[in-house]
Amino acid sequence: MTTFGNSRPRGNRRGAWQLAVALAFLMLVPFAMVLGWRIIWPASLLMVVVLVFLALKALHGEAHARMNALPLSGELPYGFAGHDIRAVCDSGGEVWLRADDVRHLLGLERSDAWMAGAYPDGYRRAVPGLAAWFISPAAVRRHWAGSFRPEVNRFLTWMERELVPLHRQRTAQVADPGSVPADDPAARPVGFVTRHWRGEHPLLHFALSGLLLAVLFGALLGGPSEPAAVVAHYQRRAFITLLELVAGTLAAAWWGVGAWRSAQRWLGSGRSLLAGMAFAMAGMGSLLYAFDRMADFDRQMTVFALVAMATDSDPRPRLTVSADGGRLLLSGEMGFGTTRAVREALARHPAIAGIELEGPGGRAYEGLVLAELVRESGLATYVRRDCVSACVLVFAGGGQRFAAPGARFGLHRSGVGWQRDDGRLSRTDLAMGEFFAAQGIADAFIRRALATPFADIWVPESAEVLTARLATDVWVDPSP
User: Fold this and answer.
1) In sequence order, what DSSP letters do the residues of 258-312 get, joined into one string?
2) Beta strand pairing status for 134-135 and 95-98?
3) Cβ–Cβ under 8 Å, residues 200 and 129
4) Which end of the chain has fewer beta carbons closer than 10 Å to its terminal beta carbon, N or C?
């Protein structure tokens, strides 16, 4: 059976669907004029879906153009006239050529089903687990026998004289036990993890494994710990969290490389682009969910903070006891370990009845826990000069709160310096507001403090500090 002629032109079909996409976007304009801003979100979602589709379609074209040079299925690529022809040997040592490669090169118009019926022994799926069709050299000769096209005759000659002998020689070298070292990893049984990395599992496997990873890491990092638990065991918790982050990154890389290679196999075999896009989006969406939970955790705890916690290298304030032994002086930034140091100082000096504060703030968790310690210990708090951020929390924990005439307080939301403030209140912000309210501070004062972004500082006037009951009294003529 002989089929002549080249492949049908596809340019018109490409132009048609591109025109349809353009018309769909143009139709959004009158709808947007009627519906206003309500159409923006679905229109944006549609644009994202279309862009993903176009990206995967480009990947589909690249897979056909480059013909999947990676030998993930045992295939080996051979070049002919600017085209790649992939060949593989079955268990019986027979050579098979990727049908799509031959189709694009020689202009085969018949469908796979027709070819399989016409050549039952020479056109089939020769690689287990791969949906691609393959054609034997004998079927190629039979189908194109009698063709007068020069490119067909050149290909048949090249196939007989070069491709088939060379491929059998290369396959024999790989299959020869004497040519493979005994400790070669390729000679050992391929495990589940390795098969995933090579992309040898179906796309459904990647969607389900991505969902499993999302649930796993979402559970590990999704529930922020209470401040007291973090402060009490900050080194251990930081070390465990760093391990979880590293493991999550490696697992995401493992999953992503396997998914990419599996997509290459799927698209290279000419299977459904829509199904491949659906599976890829499902798996990627599940991973994005997991990393969204990680990012939410990172709003309050950066990797640098975790490293400082694990190595116990956070800055600590200077602690001294007043000459009369009745007041603890705390000056400097309050890093992790501050509460523990204050607790130890109170145990060594039981006569301490108050704590004087000065500093630029510090860790919000430390501020919350130290403020609770001050409240439970019944200490009075004093500020002589500047008290900012977490320092204000500790000051608010005092049963009696004294502010000198020159004292200045700085308040804002919690956060990290490198991250953009989205205006939302975090769990830490809500805990700060609840603590302030429990200490009798005015609601309007609390709202103003929590409305101030992390990058800014609100410095209330001395009268506002007293009126809002952040300070309960003036510290008159404090000793220098």
Assistant:
1) HHHHHHHHHHHTT--HHHHHHHHHHHHHHHHHHHHHHHHHHTT--HHHHHHHHTT
2) antiparallel
3) yes
4) C
246 near 306, Cβ under 8 Å?
no
Q: Angle CA(67)–CA(70)–CA(76) in degrees, nearest 5?
A: 75
Question: 3-class SS at 331?
Answer: strand
- In the block, tokens 């990893």 appear at 185
Tokens of 4: 């002549």
Which residue matches tokens 């309210």? 437
Question: Token digits for 346?
Answer: 């109170």
- Strand 76-80 relative to strand 83-89: parallel, antiparallel, unpaired? antiparallel
SS3 readout for 77-105? EEEECCEEEEEEECCCCCEEEEHHHHHHH
CA-based nearest residue to 332, from 307, 300, 366, 304: 366
pTM: 0.55
342 three-class SS: helix
Q: Residue 379 phi/psi, 5° resolution?
A: -80, 150
Task: Show Cβ contacts of residue 220 under 8 Å, excluding neighbours closer than 6 positions.
Answer: 244, 248
Query: Among residues 55, 64, 109, which one has the least CA distance to residue 269?
Result: 64
- From 28, 19, 20, select the one nearest 46 (Cα to Cα): 28
Two tokens, residue 403: 């502010």
Question: Would you write out the chain's pLDDT as a tens digit for each of its 480 residues?
Answer: 333 333 333 444 444 444 455 555 544 555 444 444 444 445 555 555 555 556 555 555 555 554 444 444 577 888 887 788 888 888 778 899 999 999 988 988 889 899 999 999 999 988 876 778 999 999 999 999 888 888 899 999 989 988 888 877 776 655 544 444 444 444 344 577 787 777 777 766 777 777 777 777 666 655 556 787 888 888 888 888 778 777 777 777 777 777 777 766 666 555 566 666 666 665 565 556 555 555 555 555 566 777 888 888 888 999 999 988 899 999 999 999 999 999 999 999 999 999 999 999 999 999 999 999 999 999 999 999 999 999 999 999 999 999 999 999 999 998 765 556 667 888 889 999 999 999 999 999 999 999 999 889 999 999 999 999 999 999 986 665
Cβ atoms of 276 and 297 closer than 8 Å: no
